[in-house]
């Protein structure tokens, strides 16, 4: 069997295991959805010079947060758990290359992330009247931002899985940077242009801020641009930053995943 077929088979195992853990399924999808519903209900008002409401501005940002949650956090916790309970050690005794195992994990988070995005989008449309992208160009923007964001956050999740020392500490270790990044990236604050300059500069280093900005550019009209950090969607810079994190995440994966697995085998 090829690495690709082994990865697909592993993805099937991962998906079945995920859906059997009903409490994990509920909380995976519920956290971003509940946050969006609560925060969207608290925000009110329409931005000057635009028809966009504060709640509509929040929805694309929360979609970005949902992507980061199902990739970075869940992938990091899942690999740390597999390492701690001996799954990785047992897999090393099988004719399955590490790449096939990682492919299975990434395909799992891709399926879960897609479902999470659909859920958050449905909430935004039903509760806050969020319009769908108005042109083919905006749908294309949504697609490449989603693809680069998923790859970047997934690779960083694989690399970060080396940080927890046990499965019990994995959730705390992975959720802390996720929550901090959410605040400094302007996810829970609208509009992002009103944040202090040092927070904006710090958040601009990480992919979550750019993923949220890219999603806003797909869903929201250009009349809301005065609320951004600069009056431009900066698509070129968004693509460069997300691509750089994809490359950096891959390098970190090569440096940390194999070494940490050998240490615990």
Automatic annotation (TrEMBL):
Cellular location(s): Cell membrane; Membrane
ABC transmembrane type-2 domain: residues covered: 23-260
Its membrane topology: Multi-pass membrane protein
Keyword field: Antibiotic resistance, Cell membrane, Membrane, Transmembrane, Transmembrane helix, Transport
Transmembrane parts of this sequence: 24-47, 59-81, 102-127, 139-163, 170-189, 239-257
Superkingdom assignment: Bacteria
InterPro entries linked: ABC2_TM, ABC2_TM_bact-type, ABC_2_transport, Nod_factor_ABC_transporter
Protein family membership: Belongs to the ABC-2 integral membrane protein family.
PANTHER family assigned: NODULATION PROTEIN J (PTHR43229:SF2)
Name of the protein described by the UniProt record: Transport permease protein
């Amino acid at each position: 069997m090829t690495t690709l077929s082994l990865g697909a088979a592993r993805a099937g195992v991962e998906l079945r295991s995920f859906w059997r853990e009903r409490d994990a399924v509920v909380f995976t999808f519920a956290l971003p959805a509940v946050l969006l519903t609560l925060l969207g209900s608290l925000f009110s008002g329409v931005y000057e010079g635009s028809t966009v409401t504060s709640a509509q501005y929040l929805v694309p940002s929360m979609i970005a947060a949902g992507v980061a949650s199902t990739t970075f956090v869940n992938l990091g916790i899942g690999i740390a758990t597999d390492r701690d309970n001996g799954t990785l050690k047992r897999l090393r005794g099988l004719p399955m290359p590490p790449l096939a195992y990682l492919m299975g994990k990434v395909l799992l988070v891709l399926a879960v992330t897609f479902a999470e995005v659909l859920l958050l989008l449905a909430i935004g449309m039903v509760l806050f009247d969020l319009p769908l992208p108005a042109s083919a160009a905006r749908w294309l923007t949504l697609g490449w931002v989603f693809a680069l964001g998923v790859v970047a956050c997934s690779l960083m999740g694989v690399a970060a899985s080396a940080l927890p020392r046990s499965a019990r500490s994995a959730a705390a270790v992975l959720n802390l940077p996720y929550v901090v990044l959410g605040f400094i990236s302007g996810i829970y604050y609208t509009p992002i242009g009103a944040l202090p300059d040092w927070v904006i500069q710090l958040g601009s280093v990480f992919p979550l801020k750019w993923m949220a900005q890219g999603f806003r550019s797909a869903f929201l009209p250009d009349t809301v641009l005065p609320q951004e950090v600069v009056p431009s969607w900066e698509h070129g810079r968004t693509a460069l930053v997300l691509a750089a994190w994809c490359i950096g995440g891959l390098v970190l994966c090569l440096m940390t995943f194999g070494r940490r697995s050998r240490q615990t085998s």
